[in-house]
Amino acid sequence: MSNFKPNYFQKRNKVHGPKANERIRALDVQVIGSDGGNLGTLPIKKAIELAKQEGLDLIEISPNANPPVCKIMDIGKYKYDLQKKANQAKKKQKTISLKEIKLRPGTEIHDYNFKIKNAKKFIAKGDKVKFTVKFKGREMQHTELGKELMNRIIEETKEIAKIESQPKFEGRQMVMIIQPI
User: What is the pLDDT of residues 136-181, one digit of tens each?
Assistant: First the structure.
């Protein structure tokens, strides 16, 4: 009986980022010099030698091209530039969240006004608002009260918002989503 136990949960040493120098598998590559000039198609060994002479790395820029396009530059600077571009793209990205406001068919006017005021604030910020009217017990027999409430909400927010999904029943509650114009 042997003491061999296979390790199914071993870590994978996968290197992330662009391929550089000896990790490039192509035989011939299209080389762009450190000054940005095209050096033409070269064998991989010669391209790596040119990069080493300049004290830089050969980085695979476009691996899917035929032959792959490589550039002579510092790998640290290249990774830094990629990270910077990713951060810029993330900064420009607008996240829209969904805020929920819960009501009941018998919600008093003061509470209703307070919730509408909050909904208008959310819409002004650029968020979507989900209105939920919850029915309990015998309130299910008076669903027209919920429809009237939803119509009143639509009327009060029509200048700043449009309806994304019309009021509809989901079980014992009526749901509607509005979004900024």
Answer: 998 889 889 999 999 999 999 999 999 999 999 988 999 999 999 8
Alpha-carbon gap, residue 27 to 151, rounded angstroms: 69
Report yes or no on 43 lying in a domain: yes
Strands (E), the chain: 28-32, 38-43, 57-62, 69-73, 98-103, 128-134, 161-170, 173-180
Q: How far apart, in Å, are the Cα atoms of 112 and each of 40, 46, 103, 166, 176?
A: 71, 75, 8, 20, 16
Which class for 13: exposed (0-12), middle (13-18), buried (19 or more C-beta within 10 A)? exposed
Torsion 76-78-79-85 (CA) sign: positive
Instruction: Please check whether residues 67 and 134 belong to one and the same domain.
Output: no
How many domains in the chain? 2
Residues 76 and 106 in one domain: no
State the CB neighbour count (10 A cutoff) for residue 40: 9
When pLDDT is averaged across residues 109-130 and rounded to a whole number, the result is 94
